[in-house]
Specification:
The structure is a single chain. The chain has 147 residues and is an alpha+beta fold. The chain is 26% helix and 22% strand. The chain has three helices and six strands; from the N terminus they run αββαββαββ. Strands 1, 2, 3, 4, 5 and 6 form a six-stranded mixed sheet that branches. The longest helix is centred in the N-terminal third of the chain and has 13 residues, at 7-19. It is globular, with a radius of gyration of 15 Å. The relative contact order is 0.17. It binds tetrahydrodeoxyuridine. Tetrahydrodeoxyuridine (THU) binds next to helix 2. Tetrahydrodeoxyuridine binds at residues 25, 28, 30, 32, 48, 50, 57, 59-61, 95, 97-98, 101.
């Protein structure tokens, strides 16, 4: 429940809701917002950005994380909150990030060697997950490349 979260966590979720407003999703009409908290206190917003050439679009999570890593490469990602809405409003059940976003979230977690607390927002319940590793078991990562 939202009331079980700290004020800072509630704020991050609130910002992910606000980020939905900048979703560009005329093809799916499915709006997603993401808020990424950095270790300098900065909060980066992302929303899904679609394209007439469908695969050229990008999910909210990756828009936010790539922006964060491109502009604040030294700052660890501490947390991410994700909210989604369809024509009826914010989803009842927590949004489930797609596999590609989980992979990118995992890379960010391992790159900074810092677990990313993940909030998956739904109106009925919110999932709080302590690390992305839990969202993507048996993942492919840099170890397979012997780097
Ligand atoms: N989408 C996201 O932005 N994040 C998710 O976690 C799930 C899906 C977007 C991609 C596309 O613009 C629309 O939602 C429908 O798939």
């Amino acid at each position: 429940d939202i009331n079980e979260l700290s004020p800072d966590e509630q704020k991050l979720i609130e910002i992910s809701k606000e980020a939905i407003k900048n979703s560009y999703s005329p093809y799916s009409n499915f709006k997603v917002g993401a808020a990424v908290l950095l270790d300098n206190g900065e909060i980066i917003r992302g929303s899904n950005q679609e394209n007439a050439a469908y695969p050229s679009g990008l999910c909210a999570e990756r828009v936010a994380l790539f922006y964060a890593n491109a502009n604040y490469p030294e700052n660890k990602v501490i947390a991410i909150a994700i909210t989604a809405a369809n024509d009826k409003g914010i989803l009842q059940f927590p949004i489930a990030p797609c596999g590609s976003c989980r992979q990118v979230m995992l890379e960010t977690e391992q790159r900074f060697n810092k677990s990313i607390r993940t909030f998956l927002m739904g109106n009925d319940k919110i999932y709080r997950i302590d690390s992305v590793e839990q969202l993507l078991p048996l993942h492919f990562n840099r170890n397979f490349l012997s780097l």
